[in-house]
Design a protein that fits this description.
mainly beta, Porin, twelve-stranded antiparallel β-barrel, 5 helices, 16 strands, 15% helix, 42% strand
């Protein structure tokens, strides 16, 4: 818990510093023009009927008229709609984050436009749907929310067969509230090697697991369940590489650490011990409209087993293929290997997501 308090304090301090930096650098163009030099050199004009040879001392003390040529900059174009939304409601792939924030505002604006997505996962005996939305502030802060539903598949029937208890529901909802701050922009300080670095705090609330535990007479509490809410902390670095060895196409490499008490992302609730895990992804854009990626997410066990009902968690793997439809929309399809998911293996999971950035 002491580590969590220190981590949370660091997050708050760094986000405050990022927000202050954004306010200093994000003044409206009109204000910058008023405080800064003209956009072109100012030159005095020659007055009518005035001899060019007339000395400065013979000229009347009159104000000098200036002609300022203002250069209009074209408005910044919107970038491609990357990254996607994770099923937990922040920027990344399907199951892992990227350090890049979703849909930052155009230059000169403080607030970006929202991005929304719907994801559907068919995992054999179980299924998952996620409704996600993000909003970007100052280009430095990403706010995200996800309402994620897990269909329990055969789990209610297996519980009734083993215990005679009807848990009274066939799904669990997980509400995810996310805030991520961009600590370092890519290639900061004039470097060509520094990755983008993002820190995140993810508050999760489970709707359903507490009632199931009560109907089971506290059986989940006996194996490690502590409460129906928890907070994850993430630190993520991403770097885009382009060179002859990538065929001069972008290759995005991401790695990160997560501190979490969650069991199965929080769908089975939360324990009382933070455990660190690694997560990362590699994404490649062979064309401007196609992205392929591999994702890996390490899983830690918060609970001990209930044979046939709650098993040990396995690491997750996913392969994504995305069609970048235009500057606002993406359609992603993927395949995942999830291993044990509560009461059985769910390998060969299929994933699809449509995301739209306003």
């Amino acid at each position: 818990m002491r580590i969590c308090i220190l981590f949370a304090s660091l997050v708050i301090a760094l986000l405050t510093d990022s927000l202050f930096a954004a306010n200093e650098g994000g003044k409206p163009a009109s204000e910058n023009a008023a405080n800064g030099p003209p956009t072109a050199a100012s030159q005095p004009t020659t007055r009518e009927n005035e001899s060019p040879s007339q000395s400065e001392n013979d000229r009347p003390n009159e104000p000098i008229e200036l002609v300022v040529a203002e250069k209009e900059e074209p408005p910044a174009e919107k970038g491609p709609p990357l990254p996607f939304h994770t099923i937990e409601g922040y920027g990344g792939g399907a199951i892992t984050p990227m350090a890049y924030l979703v849909n930052p505002p155009r230059k000169g604006n403080w607030f970006g436009l929202p991005a929304v997505a719907f994801s559907n996962v068919m995992a054999g005996r179980k299924n998952l749907q996620a409704f996600t939305v993000t909003e970007n502030l100052f280009g430095r802060i990403e706010l995200g929310y996800a309402a994620t539903r897990l269909g329990l598949g055969t789990l209610p029937g297996d519980i009734k067969d083993a215990t005679g208890v009807d848990i009274g529901r066939h799904d669990i909802w997980l509400h995810n509230f996310n805030i991520r701050g961009l600590l370092l922009e890519e290639n900061s300080f004039g470097t060509k090697w520094l990755p983008a670095l993002t820190v995140g705090t993810h508050f999760k609330v489970n709707d359903g697991i507490k009632g199931i535990n009560n109907k089971l007479g506290g059986a989940l509490s006996d194996i490690g369940y502590d409460r129906d809410w928890g907070i994850d902390f993430t630190l993520t670095a991403s770097k885009t590489l382009v060179g002859n060895w990538t065929l001069n196409r972008p290759l995005i490499v991401t790695g990160g650490l997560r501190l979490s008490e969650a069991s199965n992302l929080g769908f089975l609730g939360f324990g009382d011990e933070y455990k660190p895990t690694f997560e990362g992804n590699v994404a490649y854009l062979p064309t401007d409209w196609l992205l392929v990626a591999y994702e890996f997410r390490q899983k830690a066990n918060q609970y001990s087993d209930i044979p046939g009902l709650v098993g040990q968690e396995d690491n997750w793997h996913a392969i994504d293929v995305s069609w970048i439809i235009n500057k606002h929309a993406t359609l992603v399809a993927g395949w995942g290997c999830l291993g044990n998911l509560v009461n059985g293996d769910e390998n060969g999971a299929w994933f699809i997501q449509f995301k739209f950035e306003f």
